[in-house]
Design brief:
mainly alpha
Length: 84
């Protein structure tokens, strides 16, 4: 595997607490030895947060659409009475 992908996998395992995540001591040692690891980890974490936010917005929109379809005609009979 390419070194960039291995690095990304290491960061993902750390952020997601995966089974291959490094112990805290090893992770801290890597942070000390690799000055860019903390910045790359923060960037990946912001990316996850953005994806989570986008997913929630999409879910809200889908729920609004479902709600509108379900309750669109619920009071239609009452509107017809008022328009007579």
């Amino acid at each position: 595997m390419r070194p960039e992908l291995e690095r990304l996998q290491l960061i993902e395992q750390h952020l997601l607490n995966g089974p291959a995540a490094l112990p805290a001591g090893d992770w801290n040692l890597r942070l000390l030895l690799d000055g860019e690891l903390a910045a790359d980890t923060a960037t990946q974490q912001r990316l996850y947060q953005g994806l989570r936010r986008a997913g929630r917005q999409q879910l809200r929109q889908e729920l609004r659409s479902i709600h509108a379809r379900l309750y669109r005609g619920r009071w239609a009979w009452l509107r017809r009475l008022w328009s007579m």
